[in-house]
Design brief:
The protein is mainly β. The protein contains one helix and ten strands; from the N terminus they run ββββββββββα.
């Protein structure tokens, strides 16, 4: 498909719209579900943002911690709606863990530090 008389909408960027303007055009890089969010705080110049609905598209996210040797035995399943889930059996006790990708760099989430938590 080709866009005529258009304004490019860049995925993940805020796009300020104007009344009765030209058509918009988006060219997604992959087949996926996209979220179109319109912030109309200024009703004469609303802001459109378009993002892939799956936050970590193409990356498997794992529960990694003491309960599984920090390995990749417990992948999350993407359920849609920006929700990931994993079910796993854990023996009673205390375990450190993180949510991370296999490479530990694409996705790597853990607890906020005490200083950061106090600011939030």
């Amino acid at each position: 498909m080709f866009c005529h008389s258009y304004q490019d909408v860049v995925e993940g960027e805020d796009n300020v719209l104007e009344r009765a303007a030209s058509n918009l055009c988006i060219t997604p890089a992959i087949d996926a579900t996209y979220l179109f969010s319109l912030f109309a705080g200024d009703t004469e110049a609303p802001i459109l943002n378009v993002v892939n609905e799956e936050p970590y598209v193409g990356t498997t996210v794992y529960l990694r911690g003491g309960m599984n040797g920090w390995g990749t035995d417990n992948p999350f399943t993407y359920d849609g709606g920006r929700i990931y889930t994993v079910a796993t059996d854990i023996t009673a006790g205390s375990y450190e863990f993180k949510i991370a990708s296999e490479d530990w760099s694409t996705v790597d989430f853990g607890a906020k530090s005490a200083e950061e938590a106090a600011v939030s």
